[in-house]
């Protein structure tokens, strides 16, 4: 029994450290006052953020509100399922008519989706992603940074983990450009497979929803910080290593994003996320994650959390799919990932 006590104490310490880092990540994500500060510094940033709100908040979510509150209610009045004053015998006589009304009403609603919502969704998705990059660029510039930041780099004697790897700098010239493109392609594929993993976990009985929430939190946190890591020229291996080593912080950072959409229908959730996502991108841009994590970890010397392979399943599945392609393409992809 005495041999178990040190293990229990160590687990308690690690749990406490994980909860503190999670809370720090959650707090950093909620620092939305940084958005106001950055928008006051950059007129272009204010315009882009306003455009995102106008497209996704006013037009997209407004269209959903009109559909549910006006269109469907009007169709329900014009094409009712039944008449309240109709007797049971009359109801049986008009059963076919009411059934036709129901079919026609559903058909008209589907037309509304096909010719308005689905094109609007695709248009919003493409344009919003272009604007997100502009928002991140203007936000990064408003922070007074225009290139790789040396301020965020930790000194060698203040590393976040004892087993940190040395990441080689990206070579200059055409080779560095090709490596950067390869990393972006691999990152896009990895996150795509991770999204499928997140979607699949939602169908697991009992624990599926909780697991889905955690994975979604990690996914949105990675999306938010990826813009900043692109500007600071962090390689893909360095990003994944830092993310998986500090999994508790990023789970906390992504939680407000997920809480805002988790209990809504898919289209409504997308609309809210499209409005809120640029705000979290800007909070990630203004967050000194390395310093926050380092400060908290100094309080728990000798009791590090350890690395969680967040992207292991997605990476394994991606490599399995890539193995179906010619060996030269696979080796080139693996080289890009390593570099």
UniProtKB/TrEMBL annotation:
Principal cellular location given in the protein's record: membrane
Signal peptide extent: none
Membrane topology recorded in Swiss-Prot or TrEMBL: Multi-pass membrane protein
TM segment ranges: 53-78, 98-118, 174-196, 270-287, 308-325
Alphabetic keyword roster: Membrane, Transmembrane, Transmembrane helix
Cellular compartments annotated: Membrane
Any single GO BP term: macroautophagy
A GO cellular-component term linked to this record: endoplasmic reticulum
Pfam family, one: EI24
Name of the protein: Protein EI24 homolog
């Amino acid at each position: 029994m005495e041999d178990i006590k040190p293990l229990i104490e160590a687990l308690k310490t690690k749990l406490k450290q994980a909860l503190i880092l999670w809370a720090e990540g959650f707090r950093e994500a909620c620092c939305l006052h940084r958005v106001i500060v950055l928008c006051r510094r950059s007129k272009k940033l204010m315009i882009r953020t306003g455009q995102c709100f106008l497209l996704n908040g006013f037009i997209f979510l407004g269209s959903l509100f009109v559909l549910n509150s006006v269109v469907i209610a009007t169709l329900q009045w014009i094409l009712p399922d039944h008449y309240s004053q109709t007797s049971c015998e009359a109801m049986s006589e008009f059963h076919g008519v009411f059934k036709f009304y129901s079919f026609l009403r559903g058909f008209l609603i589907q037309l509304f989706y096909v010719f308005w919502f689905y094109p609007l969704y695709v248009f919003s998705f493409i344009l919003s992603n272009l604007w997100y990059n502009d928002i991140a660029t203007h936000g990064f510039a408003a922070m007074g940074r225009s290139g790789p930041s040396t301020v965020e780099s930790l000194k060698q004697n203040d590393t976040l983990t004892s087993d940190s790897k040395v990441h080689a700098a990206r070579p200059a010239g055409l080779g560095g450009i090709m490596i950067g493109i390869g990393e972006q392609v691999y990152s896009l594929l990895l996150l795509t497979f991770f999204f499928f993993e997140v979607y699949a976990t939602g169908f697991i009985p009992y624990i599926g929803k909780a697991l889905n929430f955690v994975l979604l939190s990690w996914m949105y946190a990675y999306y938010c910080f990826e813009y900043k890591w692109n500007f600071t020229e962090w390689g893909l291996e360095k990003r994944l290593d830092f993310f998986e080593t500090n999994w508790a912080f990023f789970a906390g950072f992504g939680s407000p994003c997920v809480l805002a959409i988790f209990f809504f229908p898919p289209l409504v959730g997308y609309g809210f996320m499209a409005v809120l996502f640029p705000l979290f991108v800007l909070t990630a841009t203004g967050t000194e994650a390395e310093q926050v994590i380092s400060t908290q970890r100094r309080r728990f010397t000798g009791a590090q959390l350890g690395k969680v392979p967040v992207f292991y399943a997605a990476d394994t599945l991606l490599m399995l799919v890539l193995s179906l392609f010619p060996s030269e393409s696979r080796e080139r992809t693996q080289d890009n990932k390593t570099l």
